[in-house]
Amino acid sequence: WQILLLNTRATSQNVNTVAKKLLIMTGNNKKYVRKNSPKTITSGSRAVKHLKQITVQDVWETPAKDYNKICGMFDIRPQLDVCADRNNRKCLKFFTEEDDALSDECQWDVPYYMNPPYSKVKHFIKKAYEMSQKYGVDGLCLTYSKTDTKWFHEYVWGKADIYFQKGRIRFILPNGDVSKHPAPYPSMWIIYKGKK
Q: Which tens digits make up the pLDDT trace of 6-51?
């Protein structure tokens, strides 16, 4: 990841102070600040490696224990998993990639769940919001927690309940194994409540 310091008057000393604080927070003792370059701090972190990996693999199954906990906590009973396959579905009814849950033909007219592909989060969140509004159904969505994104402010903030996951989720790989490493980002559960 990169952290850009937008204050153009930042001195090299200020950048080094910020870098040291970041390194203390991350527990990493490598030095990332180059002399005469006060605007950028770069890290070869796991998040960067993960970003490269998710361009190849976009499917990360939700662990059943996390899914069941949230369903119970928010009293939500999804009947349709809109981003699934036979092996990782959380509901009896599900849409696969071939079904194309984003198409106009696929209507989410019953309570639904989704853990969308990272590469299409904004499109799935938009449709989740629209389907909950159109049909008045509950929706449960698991995404990475990026509250600075346009989709978050347009389709989540003030329109849904949000539960920020404590700790990082260890997703299930397509072969059924639990990932060796937890997700590089925090996760959040977005809950659209339909009309009762």
A: 333 344 444 444 444 444 434 444 444 334 434 443 455 655 555 5
Distance CA 82, CA 126 (A): 13
Report the pLDDT value the prediction gives residue 11, as an integer from 0 to 100.
Answer: 41
SS3 sequence of the chain? CEEECCCCCCCHHHHHHHHHHHHHHHCCCCCCCCCCCCCEEECCCHHHHHHHHHCCCCCCECCHHHHHHHHHHCCCCCCEECCCCCCCCCCCEECCCCCCCCCCCCCCCCCEEECCCHHHHHHHHHHHHHHHHHHCCCEEEEEECCCCCHHHHHHCCCCCEEEECCCCCCCECCCCCECCCCCCCCEEEEEECCCC
Q: Would you say 74 and 161 are in contact if contact means Cβ atoms under 8 Å apart?
A: yes
- Lookup: tokens for 127: 């449709």
d(CA 19, CA 179): 30
